[in-house]
Amino acid sequence: MDNAKKWQIPIFITFLLLGILLSVQFRTQQNFLGDLSLQKSDDLVLMLKKLHDKRGELEKGLRELEQQQRSLQADVNARETLAESLKNESEQLKMALGLTPVRGPGITITITTESPMVYLDLVDIINELWASQAEAIAINDQRITPWTSIYWNKTNLTLTINGKEILYPCTIKAIGNQDKLESGLRLLGGILDDLAIYKVYPVIKRVEEIELPAAPPPTLNYLQKSAS
Amino acid sequence: MWLPLLGLLIGIGIGSALAVPIPGIYVKYLSVAVLAALDSAFGGIKAILEEKFDGTILLTGFFTNALLAALLAYLGDRLGVDLYLAAVFVFGVRLFQNLAFIRRELFAAWLRKRRFSSAGGEKNG
Fold first, then answer.
1. Which residue range(s) make up the domain with B92?
2. Computed over its alpha carbons, how large is the radius of gyration of chain B?
3. What is the pLDDT of residues A128-144, one digit of tens each?
4. What is the pLDDT of residues A5-40, one digit of tens each?
């Protein structure tokens, strides 16, 4: 037993140190194995080949994805162009139909109180303006649209447009080519000559910027697109 | 009897907790030193079994063997001779010899013990 006591402490110390050394070496070796510079060249070549192959695959995938992105982008562009052109078309149609306020150069025709005229004359003037390629017309800020009614109320003896009474002096505003519009009205034997017989002398003025209001929208309850 | 194992476990625990970073170029020398330390430790156990144990010799042997092995490996690298292979060979052979001796001794002790206990449970110091 005396003998036993003599060896206990040195053996314990020795194995303690051995344990420390072992664990340190073990961990260091683990890190060491991960270090590329100490790998065998055969392994490195294999690794390189594998990585090269993988890179090729990934590049191929990248190309495919880029292709996909391009086609999607083209799709999106086409859609955007389509949407844009549809929007433009819709804007133009709305302007032509009188659903949006418009402005542009044109002429005004003013009929004063002293020169009364029947509503048919008004219709004649509007027809003449349309024939002279007017793009938008309004009478006393009532926009003329395909569903505008010009009506002579016999009981009240008043002229109504779209059910609204028109009071004199009445002003017809038309947007379009000023020369064409004016010459259309002043045509020899045209509307102004006709009116002159009845001593009606409308005043025609050229205006560089006319603003016309929008008309109320039409009702579309029964309309359907015909199959053609 | 369980002291070496206990010491080993505590040492591993300390080593893991300390997390000493060893630069890559010293790993080879450290491995040789570890081999030398292993040899010394098993040599110590062998000495106990032979009843020739001396704590001073064990501890000095432990340190000098480890350091010398590392130094020799380093020197070998400087000189372009793979001296660390010699250290690995020598310590490896000795390690196996020590282990074989320990195995034989323990087996013999176990056999003796069984023979005595079957003979009538006599106690032997």
1. 23-119
2. 19
3. 888 888 889 998 888 88
4. 677 788 888 888 888 888 888 887 777 777 777 677
Neighbours of A138 (CB within 10 A): 25
Residue ranges of chain A whose CB lies within 8 Å of a chain B CB: 3, 6-25, 27-29, 31-32, 35, 37-38
Burial class of residue A13, CB neighbours in 10 A (0-12, 13-18, 19+): middle
Beta-sheet pairing, A142-143 with A150-153: unpaired
B11 inside domain: no
* H/E stretch holding A102: strand A102-111
Give the closest-approach CA distance of B59 to chain A in angstroms: 7
Contact between A78 and A149 under an 8 Å Cβ cutoff? The reply is: no
In the numeric block, the tokens 């961990």 are attached to A27
Whether residue B115 lies inside any domain: the answer is yes
Q: What is the ipTM of this complex?
A: 0.78
Output the 3-class SS for B56-91: HHHHHHHHHHHHHHHHHHHHHHHHCCCHHHHHHHHH
Q: Is B3–A16 a contact, with Cβ atoms under 8 angstroms apart? A: no
Tally of domains in chain B: 1
Q: What is the dihedral of CA A47, A49, A50, A56, to 10 degrees?
A: 140
Beta-carbon count within 10 A of A23 CB: 21
Exposure string of A87-126, with b = 16+ CB inside 10 Å and e = fewer, is eeeeeeeebebbbbebebebbbbebeeebebebebbebbb
pTM: 0.46
Query: A57 with B52: CB under 8 angstroms?
Result: no
